[in-house]
Specification:
Number of strands: 4
Order of helices and strands: HHHHHHHHEEEHEH
Length: about 280
Amino acid sequence: MLIWGNKKYVVDKLITDNGFDNVKKQLVDLLYSDTAIEKRWDAFLKNVKGLGPATISELLTYVNPQEYVIFNKTTVLCYAYLDIPDMPKYNYQYTGKKYAEVCNIAKEIANLLVESGEKDADLLAVDYFLWDEILPLAEKKGSGDKTQEAPVAVKPVSAKDTKSLHDEMKEKLVAIGELLSFESRAEVRITDGVVVDAVWEAKIGNMDKAIYVFEVQSKGSIDSLILNLKKAQNNAAVQAVVAVADEEQLAKIIKESNRRKGSPNMGFRRCFGSV
């Protein structure tokens, strides 16, 4: 993980957030249990914070490259190039069931590699094959002219998916805040009767804290979001309030906040791209 200059910090945080005994137990269950991989995968992601699908699939591949393949954005991009359908877009879609499907497809690719003369090709060899042979083609296709491509059918977003996406965005906000050296937390009571999705906090010398408040909007009514952010501004330490949403929801938030009377400080403006 080259992005981390201080790897000890990452390890210490993993232990602090999850407990050393729990991390050990969950790793043993994930890597060595006889339970179906679908259940082991989902249980690990549920019970350990800070290790995602890419990392745990690397561990599984290291321990048993005959059965398990690395599952990350490169895998998804290469599989999509090979016209393998229903590849995940968001982290919550990297389920145990999907991982089992991805591993089965990788085994088919490994068999084809063996048939073509690559002796003893395992699923780690499949990963190298994807990186060396398929990824350059996928990236080239992705950077080409897309005007002639057929439109992609978008599946309706279920209530469960909306909740999962909402939770994922909160986790990403917390992770970004930590990378920027803020004290970053989710589900924080910011003032009486108001719990916001995420906050970033920073000490300013000997002064009080500076707080940045985030609310995520993925679907549905925006009234509670605007109300929460408006109330959050009553906290003197709050420096800014931020609504995080896609383009459609952002447009609704901006329109509604600008329409309301008596809220001069609640005029949102778009300062980031869509998510």
